[in-house]
User: Fold this.
Amino acid sequence: MATQRKTAEVDYSMQEKILALYELQKIDSKIDGINKVKGELPLEVQDLEDELAGLKTRMDNINSEIEELNALVKQRKREIDQAKILIGNYKEQQNNVRNNREFDSISKEIEYQELEIELAEKRLKEYAAGVKAKKAQMEETNSVMAERQADLDAKKAELDGIETETAPLEAEYKAQADAAKLRIDERLLAAYDRIRRNVRNGLAVVTVKRDACGGCFNHIPPQRQADIRLGKKVIICEYCGRILVADPEEE
Assistant:
């Protein structure tokens, strides 16, 4: 809406808007050139940051699992202690039984508690093995995290160096682009942005060179070239969909 208000203050002709579009394209191409210098670094940095976040989550999960296993170890040890106390009590009771039936009944209780101890000790061995395996996973994950962090630091340093070097020029280009946009209405800007997203090299506005489209190099008929030079309306290449303009330098 802000662009519409500003362009409404000055009634730019269609030819002026088309020329502004061409200027904007040249500026955006310079910005694209800067981004090309950065290459895949921004994506690589983002990927490494995402991977490190995932590894950290994995470490947190492993730590939680180890804490759960340690809690179970404490629980089983308490159960063993309680079973041993019960066995001691039962053995004392056996000394005071009145008949064989009571003796056998208490003996069964002792056997049951001894089985509980055996089961708990078996579980303790399983938990110990589980903790050992989890700690091995932690060491492996820590090693991977250290490698990824080193890669991230190196790529970030490289990217920061490029951005520090190109930031003033990029800011200048963006200011020029903003100035050019003030002469283009919102509808035309939206079309320009849409075409830029859909073409591989980011060229939404191209000139006619040697009777051909500067984007796809298909032949442009003479009458259509004449319409392009007049600049009374936006002419789109019927082959690639780019906006065609007359080369101001040739003019």
